[in-house]
Design brief:
Elements: H1 2-19, H2 29-32, E1 34-43, H3 46-51, E2 58-64, E3 70-77, E4 83-92, E5 98-102, E6 109-118, E7 122-131, E8 134-143, H4 150-162, E9 170-172
Antiparallel strand pairs: 1-2, 1-8, 1-9, 2-3, 3-4, 4-5, 5-6, 6-7, 7-8
């Protein structure tokens, strides 16, 4: 019973912390446009715990639409030379820097918040994924290059801890070649 209460308390704290994460007030989707490298990834999701050792840097293309939405295209080169790709259209909300989308691949609802962005250097993005009533927090650190400063890596690590991610579930991904254009 004590373990159940401890787990429930951790989940509630994580959910509460995540619901309070505020997007960057002056977020500019146009300035976000272009190629980014996924350098850091943090989540307590079981799939990540099982696969984190095989994950490497991937690329993301953020393309703003005329309506203010963001077209998201991800690609990561697998060890066998094939590419893993994922596309989503994130719809803007009434809150600048907050977007929502449903993943066709995974069937989850996503509440994505652009938390801290310096458009020529890095972006910290916080997403709350919901599937079958279960909430999962995913934090991502993107860079305009694969090389980010130790201070930025630590900033991401601290942010992830504050949003309930366990220290062992915060990963800085090893370098990787890029997928060819699709």
């Amino acid at each position: 019973m004590t373990l159940l209460l401890a787990v429930l308390g951790a989940v509630l704290c994580s959910w509460t912390a995540s619901s309070e994460v505020v997007p960057q007030a002056d977020f500019d989707p146009q300035a976000m446009a272009g190629k980014w490298y996924l350098v850091g990834f943090a989540t307590n999701a079981q799939w990540f715990v099982n696969r984190r050792d095989s994950m490497k840097v991937g690329t993301a293309m953020f393309t703003p639409t005329a309506d203010g939405d963001l077209d998201l295209s991800y690609a990561s080169l697998n060890s066998d030379g094939s590419c893993w790709r994922l596309n989503n259209l994130a719809k803007k909300t009434d809150t600048p820097g907050k977007f929502t989308y449903t993943s066709d691949r995974w069937g989850n609802e996503n509440d994505m918040r652009m938390v801290d962005v310096k458009y020529d250097e890095y972006a910290i993005i916080h997403t709350i994924k919901t599937k079958s009533g279960v909430l999962t927090v995913v934090n991502k650190l993107y860079g305009r290059s694969m090389d980010l400063s130790a201070e930025l890596l630590e900033k991401f690590r601290q942010f992830s801890l504050e949003t309930g991610v366990l220290p062992e579930n915060i990963a800085f991904l090893p370098r990787n070649a890029e997928c060819p254009a699709a």
